[in-house]
Structure formats: C-alpha cells, structure tokens
Structure of diguanylate cyclase:
Amino acid sequence: MKIVLVDPSRLILKVTSGYLAETGYQVSPFTDATDALAHLKDDPDVEVLVTGLEPHGMSGLDLCRLARELAGARRALHVVVMSSTSESRRIAEALDAGADDFMSKPPQPEEFLARLRVAARATAAQRDLLRLATTDSLTGLLNRRAFFETVDEMPESSVCLAMFDIDRFKQINDSFGHAAGDQVIAAVAGEAGLSDGVAGRLGGEEFALLIPQARLVDAIDLCEDLRMRIAALSFAEIHENLRATCSFGVVARGENEDVGAALQRADIALYAAKSSGRNRVVAATAPDERRTIVMDRARKPLSDESDALRDRPRVREA
C-alpha cells in the first residue's frame, strides 16, 4: 500500500516513516501540503493520505478538501487526519473536510497500523464499488456512463472517437441463440480492449473507442486493424460457419465539441458504413461545417448528406 504522510515535524515524519516502511508500506513523507497534493496527482496508486492539521503550504483541512476533490468518484482514497488535540470540534471539522478517520499525534505504532488495516479494507471496498459502477459486466470494458466521463476528462486536442457495432447481430442471435450472441460480443470486446485506445460498450452490440493523441488518419488505420482482427475471429465451438464483422464510424473531436455531438457525427459515419456494405471503416470530417462529409478508408467521399442522415429514424439492419 502506498501512503502519503504530511506533517511539519521532520522528526515525526522520520520516525513514523521508519516503522511503516519496516512493516512493508511505501511511504512518501512531506512537510509541505502543496508538494503532497502534487504527488497525489502524479501517482494514482496512492491509497492513503495521512496529514497533520498544520503542514506548510496550506492547512491540513484544505489538503483534505483538495485531495477529496482530486479523488472524486473514480479513485479509492482513504484520508486520515492526525492532531495533538482530540477536541470534538476539530474532529468534526476534519470529517466535514473529507477525512475518513482521525487519530492522535504523534501516532502510536500499534494504533497507526490498526488504522491502516482499516484503510486497506475500506479502499478495497471502494475499488470494488468503482469497478461495479464503471465496468460492463459481460465484456469488462467501460460502461456507457464511464466511457462518456472518460472522454469528458480528456483534453480536446488530438482526440478521435469511433463507434462500431456487430453486423447483422440479430441474425446471430436468431440462428445460434442469445448465449452465442453474448460470446460474440465478449470476443469482439476482447479485441477492442487490445487496441491503443479506451474501449467502452455503449449497449447491446454497440461499442465506442476513445483514441487520444491521434490524427484522424491514424484513428482510421487503428480501426481498420481492429476490423480485420474481428473478421478473423473463429467461433468454431458454436458453429463452423459463424463469423462476426463490424462496421466503424470515426471522427476527430472538434474544438469545444461535446461528447454527444462528436458521437453523433461518428454515428452518421457508422450509418454510412452500414449503408455502403458493412464490414468497413468510414470517417466523418469537417465537424464545424454545416454538412458532414463521410469518407471511406481510401479517403473517397461517400456522402455529404449529413442533414438527411441525421433526420432519418434510427432503424437500420444490424
């Protein structure tokens, strides 16, 4: 377990870090709360923050608040405040600031280690809850909400998005059963998870990819590689003739473009991929123009009728 320990007393830091390290904990000691917060940002594997109330740089209560904001709803972090006073007012202030626990200062080894065992149980439970809240149970990919949140957290520059789904998936379910359909979805997701990007399952047989720090041409090539790997999958244990293919719509996210608008353009390109034969990659360009041009992998325009496509009801053969 990684621990950040913050206190203005170098003696307390030295003594406490010493016996914690002997017990197997990885301790990063700081006298300055600003430096400690920067370390928390840089190392997402830190699970426990222990701070006094009066470190250098900012108060311990402010550090608690900022650390809790940093962790948000996507990171397991246990915060402990230590103080030489046990006044109920100070304890209440620490808990209101985001602390999970409060203990006396200087911390006694036996008590400190016991509280760290409590922290280990609490962070393990937090991680389990986060996994259940953000992960699609069938595929292990991000679920729809977590995928959208991940895209929102990314810088807008050099970000590409792709939507893809399994061609004629209803026929797979009708011919081989829903258990076989789930197996195909899981296999496609497994290939998507190996790509250089963040994959999510939006629902049913529909998926999305976030491709950071990529040009549109690079994202097209990445999706083409994924398309071919999916087409090469074998499902001989279900039926020797069963194959799965996917159609892709790819976009470069425009400046100040929200996630929904970018994915809508990707969906237009995906519709064009379906309409032009399936099992192919189609890109949508020019996000700031009134009309979206959809192009195939050879950069040849397939359509510039985005308004018509957008107005069409979402009824298409999968």
